[in-house]
Amino acid sequence: MIENWEEYRIVNDSLQRLVSNADTLPKVKKALQHLIKAGGKRTRPIIVLLSGKLAGGDYETVLDMAMAVELIHTASLAHDDIIDRGVVRRNVETLNVKYDPSLAMLVGDWLISKSVELTSKYGPEVVRNFARTGMMMSEGEILDVYSITDDFGEEEYFRCIELKTASLFAYSARNAYKFISGDNSKSEKMYQYGFNLGIAYQLVDDLLEYLEIFEDKKSEFESLTLPLLLERTFGFKESVHRVLELIKKFTEKSKRALESFPSSEAKEKLLYLVDYMTVNMIKNYVSKNREVISILEAHYP
């Protein structure tokens, strides 16, 4: 489990220090403490640390870059919950419920601003790439929000997840490696690692959410995802099968991107993260829901 990794501990400790040392309003600090206490996988900042290590650097050098990635991701979740009127995330009340939507929105803005400040030490290229990633994430969220009213098919779906999810994974993997090594060719390999992992992860997330709809775990669905789009043509079982094949395709592409790198602990951990965020999530779901899945297959032949 990555919760036992040194990198996970470094990220969590750094987040706690950042919040404790933040020179800001009491309302903001309480909201930040609530967000950090909620936890999370911390996979994106861990990828930053491991990519810097793979390039021959140390964790301290790219730590602020890792923090920036986690802060902008956290901001996107806070804004997401306002849009979706989310009530619970990571088993705790969302910020918009714990306090109110106005504070949630403004603390999200604070997090984005802080993340830009953290990247500023790395120079114009890193800041520019980070800003572009933030814009892409916003564009992806816009596609997602209007997926139920606009003309939205498979092409639009993949464009959405490339922008909303894969862009930040790609940034996390590429920029730390490029900053340490200066190697454009291998930095592009790292980009492909993160980009394909991001797509695979979002496909898994959407697939599991789709299965939960059929278990009545969700009362409503706010956007169109690939399983729902495929079901219209192919039915339940075939749509699940096709999404699983795509997950396999993108996980393999992510792993292949690392083939040219020499063996190291950082490389092994980056490879493990691919399975951790895809195959392991599916296996965990299946192991907990075997009976439910059998019922679903019986009802949706």
Put the structure in a nutshell.
By secondary structure, the protein is mainly alpha-helical. The chain has one domain (2-299): Farnesyl Diphosphate Synthase. Helices cover 77% and strands 1% of the residues.
Features:
two-stranded antiparallel ribbon, mainly alpha, 77% helix, Isoprenoid_synthase_dom_sf, Farnesyl Diphosphate Synthase, 301 residues, EC 2.5.1.90, globular, metal-binding
Strands, helices and their partners?
Elements: H1 6-21, H2 26-37, H3 43-54, H4 59-84, E1 88-89, E2 92-93, H5 95-98, H6 101-119, H7 124-145, H8 154-181, H9 184-214, H10 226-234, H11 236-256, H12 265-276, H13 279-288, H14 290-299
Antiparallel strand pairs: 1-2
EC number: 2.5.1.90
Keywords: Magnesium, Metal-binding, Transferase
Enzyme class: transferase
Describe the structure.
The protein is mainly α and 301 residues long. It has a single domain (2-299), classed as Farnesyl Diphosphate Synthase, CATH 1.10.600. It has helices at residues 6-21, 26-37, 43-54, 59-84, 95-98, 101-119, 124-145, 154-181, 184-214, 226-234, 236-256, 265-276, 279-288, 290-299, and strands at residues 88-89, 92-93. It has a two-stranded antiparallel ribbon. A hairpin with a 2-residue loop joins strand 1 (88-89) and strand 2 (92-93). Helix 3 packs antiparallel against helix 12 (265-276), helix 4 (59-84) runs antiparallel to helix 6 and helix 10 (226-234) crosses helix 11 (236-256). It is globular, with a radius of gyration of 19 Å. The two termini are 36 Å apart. 38% of the residues are buried.
